[in-house]
Amino acid sequence: xxxxxxxxxxxxxxxxxxxxxxxxxxxxxxxxxxxxxxxxxxxxxxxxxxxxxxxxxxxxxxxxxxxxxxxxxxxxxxxxxxxxxxxxxxxxxxxxxxxxxxxxxxxxxxxxxxxxxxxxxxxxxxxxxxxxxxxxxxxxxxxxxxxxxxxxxxxxxxxxxxxxxxxxxxxxxxxxxxxxxxxxxxxxxxxxxxxxxxxxxxxxxxxxxxxxxxxxxxxxxxxxxxxxxxxxxxxxxxxxxxxxxxxxxxxxxxxxxxxxxxxxxxxxxxxxxxxxxxxxxxxxxxxxxxxxxxxxxxxxxxxxxxxxxxxxxxxxxxxxxxxxxxxxxxxxxxxxxxxxxxxxxxxxxxxxxxxxxxxxxxxxxxxxxxxxxxxxxxxxxxxxxxxxxxxxxxxxxxxxxxxxxxxxxxxxxxxxxxxxxxxxxxxxxxxxxxxxxxx
Length: 439
Hints:
Blueprint: E1 6-11, H1 15-30, E2 34-37, E3 53-54, H2 77-86, H3 94-127, E4 131-135, H4 141-144, E5 149-154, H5 181-205, E6 223-227, E7 244-247, H6 262-265, E8 273-277, H7 279-282, H8 286-297, E9 302-306, E10 320-323, H9 328-331, E11 337-340, H10 344-352, E12 357-359, H11 366-375, E13 379-381, H12 389-401, H13 403-419, H14 421-437
Parallel strand pairs: 1-2, 1-4, 2-3, 4-5, 5-6, 6-7, 8-9, 8-11, 9-10, 11-12, 12-13
């Protein structure tokens, strides 16, 4: 392919952003382009099998890195360990988490960005990419100050793109009640202003432009993609300029096929097949996972459980099957209901496949996704650590029995799939790269 591009992806280390970039990267690879991943080092050996070039970075000194021989759970281990240690904070109101979780998370991400900056410059010099794609919530100046075209992806809830007429990001506050918005932003500034100022100064020292107020990541002047269905979007209240492109969904096509096991496929009348996943990070909270398993184990429904990195510590009930990791994108179309933490990938994939949701948010933008799903009637948001058993079982039963909602969700899912966000996103990246090369 004479006009083949070199596209360099740098996703945040967690499974969500990395899987999102894998999906886009595979489309570009299949079109004849060369795709390089400058992912975090614990992904070693996991990206090359797709045909990508791995040129990975350390986000901390070697003695702080996961053991490369630790097995399947090593990918994203830095954040799995971080979440496990920080889990007690998730029971707090979102405003209180700003000081005790959100700011330390930003600081951990900043520390990683500053540490790997020289490595990224070397990687860019080795591969000379035509276009660089970042999916993260902090800036890496090396990515945006190179000669390549720079594309930003927002694979978190799009409230990350702030505006006066939408709730503050991370708050989980409703659109129709502004009473707490100002106080939340005041607390955000109190807890984050010093961190932001220091990072803004460092980014400028590396040759990057000033950071936008309250934001830790730059917007691309060329193209910015965000992953969120039109049906959930906020653009009526917070319009975006022409550099922004919505990808209604970005469902990777690299997952293995999933056959529903007979023990849960054969279910009695009136029961449903439920998919339970708190994501690769949320499932590290074994106490919460076991409580959900025990409650659902007493129902007539059948359940498939994504058990996560601490699977060996969980005990499934007789009406369940599960594994540490599951091919979510081929599994989800076969169930009737999704119980999720509200991660952006799972939320958008559930909408893509037309699945109602029960959402139990834990941290970051999960509260915003949970609130948006709830207030628009696509599911039910519950208080993750304070719900009563019958609140969960009642929500499950209502959603499974609501035939009107199920028909509505099926139609929405068909519309989202027809928009083919995965190829739209890959096409935008391709166009940017070709246009930049032709300057």
